[in-house]
Amino acid sequence: MHVGETEVQENDVRGVLAGERDPLAAASRLECAEPSDTEDVPRQLTVRLAVVDDQDERLRVPRRPCWRRSGHRRILTPMPIRLVLAEDQYFVREGIRRLLESQDDLVVAAVCDDLDSLLAAVDAERPDVVVTDIRMPPGNRDEGIQAALRLRESNPEVGVVVLSQYATPSYVLALLEGGSERRAYLLKERVTDVDQLTAAIRAVSEGGSVMDPKVVEALVAENTRTEESPLTQLTPREHDVLREMAEGKNNAAIAASLFLTERSVEKVIHSIFLKLGLTWEPAVNKRVKAVILYLAESA
User: Fold this and answer.
1) H-helix or E-strand containing 181?
2) pLDDT, position 124
3) C-alpha dist (Å) from residue 124 to 110, 111, 134
């Protein structure tokens, strides 16, 4: 059994699984196997992935508490988010790398300067998230988008954060072509704000999506220039919620940002979709794509 960098050994797992008819059920009980010399910690921390190999079958187990030894006792520790960073400009790449490595929960496993080395690094390092420039060799066109689309097919569990200097709807739509889950599009100016960058990385690592607020604002502004646009029917509150939705926020995050209750947010979202003629989407990722598509097609 391999759980990130934990100390669980194959023999330990084989002992638990021995004689079990249902290996996955047995593996799930490993979370109860707490060492006797442990101490309580203030919060529950989890591993990112557990894999059990049994007779050529690969069983993926949900996230479990992870123990490590610290001196004479064992404590729970979070598994870091493993990253591959792709940027062809050396000084920009090194600056981003240092920013990311300043975060305790992020580990830069590899750095790359072109599309081919990026894809090779993903195969070799199995990262949780790729942070990539939108333009790199060999073509210096949209290699970051190409990488995201390829990884959607080959490594769908890997998140991708695309850094771009272009608030261009076509790039955003291309990124979302295969779905918005585990995808983020940020303007490069966000690199100087480590909180925004790392928040996007953490969001996509958990399956979420993030769109740069300036990209969303540009799309909304373009759509409200004509009186015929359905967006002119929205109230100021609905405009605020629409922007928050397009950025990838869930109902709880929108409620916190706008000082509303989640129930109120849900009602506003229903009203927006009704006025814009959109099909209701309860899943946040699909909702983001629906809103972005609407804004881009109406611009």
Assistant:
1) none
2) 96
3) 9, 12, 22
